[in-house]
Known about the structure:
CATH class: Mainly Beta
Strand order of the largest sheet: 1-28-29-30-31
CATH architecture: 7 Propeller
Amino acid sequence: MPSSRPRSASPRSSLVRLCVATACAAVFAAVATGPADAASTTFGPAVAHNPYAGPDGSATMHGDSASSDTTPLPGPGAGTLTSKRIALASACPTVLIGSDGYPVALCTPIFGQVPTVHLLDPADGDSIATLTLTKGSLLGGVYAYLDQNDRLVVIDGSHRLLRIGHHRGTDGSWSLSVDSALSLTSAVPSGDDVTGIAPDWQGRVWFATGGGVVGTADDRTGVVRTLQLPAGERVDNSISTAPAGTLVTTTYATYLLTASSDGTPQISWRQAYDRGTARKPGQLSPGSGSTPTFFGPTDGTDYVAIVDNADTREKLQVYATSTGRLICSTPVLVSGGPGSENSPVGAGRSVFVASTYGYPYPKVPDDAGTSVPASADFTGGLTRVDVRADGSGCDLVWDNKLRSAAVPKLSTGDGKLHTVLRDPLIPGTTGSGILDPYRYAEIDPNTGQVTRSSSIGVGSLYDTLQMAGNAAPGGVWYQGTVTGVVRISGGQ
């Protein structure tokens, strides 16, 4: 159905309609460059815009190809917060918003588990078009990005690199279609699957497989080049790109890779980390749970951040992007659960780390291995660490026990951290159950304190499963859940 059904007018809804009816890229720019404040100055600059990706902040699960987990767009505006559950009978970890304002969600249905792309109506979040993909691995239905033409770029279960566009017919209805496809069958070993993809600054698509193959694919020429990382090293999270190169964190080490003249990946540096002795409860794989993050005070890419998997106390590892030199190895989640499956948030000299230790995932990958201990309470935890101005090390700024149930995002547009909190059914306890309440929350990044929150629902239908949310123009926040998407907005 068309997205232009009548609605009551408001400045925020008018902004959404403006996005839909005109070039929404201009709206992104207008909102992102609004009145400056201390927070946006402190937590910048962002990495330079990737010309082969969609809008910064919403083109990837982690905001941008650098995986900064930041957005230039503000979250819901002042006033009463309202939320709407869009029931899709699917887990929807990836909700991306293009320059035209249309959200694109990549979801895995509860029944059948065949990845499905949904085009959402920006006015109310309803699904207005769908497209099913070939089924592959768990992570193959998670990581994707929007390109500069607002097409979803994803690798399906048959190892095809797809660009999926959304198109409006003459009758006003919307459809999703595969605009181009490139087979990667010769590059991905039998029994292996792609876990992460990201565009570089030359228009190539970098990819990494669970079995440790890293490659580049140029679907303009059909050229595909690969590099096998050392035997036994797996890639269980996504990858990140910046002008300096491509970051890949395996179950043993973090790599910065560049491409030779023919596109073949080559290692610029490698840094091993403390991978611990076993997977922890609340993590989906052994070793680090981090998608590596570019951040920094000069151009947004001075440093690289991951969280290790040390047995007793996890540490934030910060490296110099240019050389791989270790800047610091700083304990994090000191008062919360000592484990994280999430990508760190990085902006300016600051890094924010959220705990997932003990998070009750309904299922983990078949090859994840046994966790030690077998289970644990989800105590939560959120830590801020700053790199010193002279680059001589890092300092813990604050640490708390907030039970973030989603990947936090930092908005440089409003100076707040945005996430969803999973509260215990019985206040003051650390247990988790199917009747836990969930609330959208805004956190002051300077103190770690919640400044505003609002219930989005109670019970497992609203489980946000440590998935990332994204801001859209008009003060709207989209958050994937285990059964669909929640759309959060602020009243006037």
